[in-house]
Design goal:
By secondary structure, this protein is mostly helical. It contains 6 helices and 2 strands; from the N terminus they run H-H-H-H-H-E-E-H. Helix 1 packs parallel to helix 6 and helix 3 packs parallel to helix 5. It comes from Microlunatus elymi.
Length: about 170
């Protein structure tokens, strides 16, 4: 696991792709930074009525990367569990350790970067519910998805040990 430095927002006049990639990278880094440093008990602790935990959110984000870049954009087969038991990606197994989950998320992000680098923003993939989506749309969705979960991680982290702040 590598804890990334805080990343600034992209420049307001950067080209579209640089802006999309910049915000996505910023929120990927924030998610990792919000989770890093917790002990295993804290990372697994439920603080809300749902089964949401810091470790579970990081596990989910790893599979979000896989879903959008590998399955949708690259067209690889969708695992059956996504339709049979979609909550699996949030559930923690006994051997799920936060450090490993963060490392797996970071590896998935690197794979996503490599896949995206092979495509133009207008290139498309097919999603089973949404139909055809462009890489541009995937970037926008991933920013929204990771930013939303980074906010949840922020709240959980504050409840767990008082650590606060945007990043």
């Amino acid at each position: 696991m590598i804890i990334p430095e805080a990343l600034p927002a992209p420049n307001g006049t950067d080209p579209e792709r640089a802006v999309l990639e910049g915000f996505l990278e910023q929120y990927r880094a924030i998610a990792v930074r919000k989770a890093a440093g917790l002990d295993e008990a804290a990372a697994r602790r439920r603080l809300v009525d749902s089964p949401t935990t810091v470790a579970g959110l990081i596990k989910h984000l790893r599979w979000v990367e896989e879903a959008w870049f590998v399955e949708v954009l690259q067209g690889r087969p969708r695992p059956q569990w996504r339709d049979v038991d979609p909550d699996w990606q949030f559930r923690l197994e006994d051997d799920d350790q936060l450090g490993n989950l963060i490392a797996e998320f970071q590896q998935a992000c690197q794979r996503s970067r490599l896949i995206a680098a092979e495509h133009d923003l207008d290139d498309t993939g097919s999603h089973p519910r949404l139909g055809v989506v462009s890489l541009r749309w995937i970037y926008a969705h991933m920013i929204e998805e990771i930013a939303r979960h980074a906010g949840q991680l922020d709240i959980l982290r504050e409840q767990l040990d008082g650590v606060v702040g945007f990043d």
